Amino acid sequence: MSSLNVDDEQRWVPTHVQVTVLRGRGLRAKGKNGTSDVYTIIQVGKEKFSTCVVEKTTAPEWKEECSFELLPGVLEAEGRNAYPAGSSDLVLTVMHRALMGLDVFLGQATIPLDKVFQDRICMRNEWYKLHSKTGKKEKERGEVQVTVQFTRNNLTASMYDLSAKDKPLSAFGRLKNRMKSKKQDDAESASAIVPGVGR
């Protein structure tokens, strides 16, 4: 007889987290005319995405989303210890795009996804306070509004491969294939030319 608990059998565990960076407010002005050219770097583990740059504002609106695959067990106490500290953190770094030199740090928010998941909320929409870099004096840096939603993708690799073969190529896919075949044609014709040797 199985000792598996019914709750364990029916427990829902997400495979991905979808992050939507909606807007910012009260951000520091680092550009001309008391504004900034603002973008956000969104990171989970080693994977990063970036929003577009919204120019001349301290209250940008992005409404951009990305999805991260979660490490197996990273949201659960038993599995979390198998990974380096911070592996389940969503890190949002807000930056000012500088025309010359390095981009300027505006603030950072760290959202522990394991704690959000433990609250049993599949989707959370909140304003998160931006903080200074670790070890630096804390200043008022504004806030960023983010939606965090956990999802589960049950599609296996073999199912994905089979479904991908039957799908028609997008316009970009067709262009990419044409460029590939053009490069191959150019390479073949270039290799057929043999330089003459003068005597």
Q: Main β-sheet: number of strands, strand sense, barrel status?
A: 5 strands, antiparallel
Question: What does the overall shape look like?
Answer: globular
Radius of gyration: 24 Å
Helical percentage: 10-25%
How far apart lie the N and C ends? 90 Å
Mean model confidence by pLDDT: 81
Residue runs with pLDDT of under 50 for 5 or more positions:
1-9, 158-166, 189-194
Q: What's the order of the H and E elements?
A: HEEEEEHEEHEEHH
What is the total tally of β strands?
9
Q: Structural class, please?
A: alpha+beta
Tell me the fraction of residues in β-strands, as a range.
Answer: 25-35%
Word description of this protein:
With 199 residues, the protein is of the alpha+beta class. Helix content is 24%, strand content 35%. The strands form 2 sheets. Strands 2, 3, 4, 6 and 7 form a 5-stranded antiparallel beta sheet that branches.
Question: How is the secondary structure organized here?
Answer:
Blueprint: H1 6-10, E1 16-25, E2 36-44, E3 47-50, E4 54-57, E5 61-69, H2 77-80, E6 89-96, E7 104-112, H3 113-118, E8 123-129, E9 143-151, H4 157-166, H5 171-192
Antiparallel strand pairs: 1-5, 1-9, 2-3, 2-4, 2-6, 6-7, 8-9
Short overview:
The chain has 199 residues and is an alpha+beta fold. The chain is 24% helix and 35% strand. Strands 2, 3, 4, 6 and 7 form a five-stranded antiparallel sheet that branches. Strands 5-1-9-8 form a four-stranded antiparallel sheet, with no helix packed on it.
